[in-house]
User: What shape does this take?
Amino acid sequence: MSDGKESTVLQKAGDRLSSITSTLTGTPTHQFPTFEQLPRVEGQPQGSLWGYFDTPSKHDEIGTLNLLTHDVVRRSSSEIRTGEHVQLDWCLENVQFPGFNRKQFEQKIVDMAPLGFASLDDELHINTQSGSQWDSLKHFAHQKSRMYYNGLSHEEATRTVTNGIHNWCERGGIVGRGVLVDWLTWYEKKHGDPPSAVSRHEIPVSELDEVLKYQGTTTRPGDILIVRSGYVRWHNFASPEERKKGTRDNSVAIGVANNETTVRWLYDHHFAAVAGDTVAFEAWPPPLHEGGWCLHEWLLTQWGTPIGEMWDLEALSKVCEREGRWSFFLTSAPLHVKGGIGSPPGAIAIF
Assistant: This one.
């Protein structure tokens, strides 16, 4: 056998073994290059995944949700042991004072009695960025190029449904293994009073690693990473005056550090999605013009990784502490809107 044919046979055997291993372990079948080895994308920083999930018949619009294969979901279902379940959506009237001139939540009760029925409807008005939410892959662009995930221009994004949340719904929503990194509980036990949730405190990934070790939690490719930093708890106990001062009047919030170390850590872990209880997952405002390490640009734009924000993790934290485990089966059913830009997550953790 020639060296070329032998190499091909060995490569095929290696690929087959990798596929079998992935099936048995429940890990994604995708084999990622290192950050430095990713093909360069014109106009984008080194480390972009544009084109990686494309197939000959389809231009990808769901990014790292591709990691949630049937095998990964099936293995994730082994997290269900007690049947206890916790919804992670904050009540829709929160945040009480949305920033960025976003409209507050409104509910209108419609009495059907004039039509001869003892019946009620309701009409809701929400800005999908004003409370618990998913950010879709057309929410935030690479600011310098004004491009969204996988080459969608800002102009195209305003007039097409490309990269909308409907793509997630049409594949069956988001289902997989959730992992809570309860940074707030860890910090209070180790250091005492935590930093203010309405300060621009940056949580380094070295501390996320410490929390995972403290919890005895191991992450896997394709997991949904969820970080509790204390923002929802702060809002729950703040007065209306404190809430207004900390939100509408001052768009600053705690979050994961926005730097190169974080970007490489996130890439190396290959999460299917990330979420948290704070305004933007990352510390806000981000360093948009200071080195290019805004996590929205990397997660949403370069990799197609959905970001969940302002999730209510308070009850989840208590259940995890009581059960002594911080991983669970996670389901999420976003609003099925063609071209949707954001949505309440409809997220449930099942133990």
About this structure: The chain is about 30% helix and 15% strand.
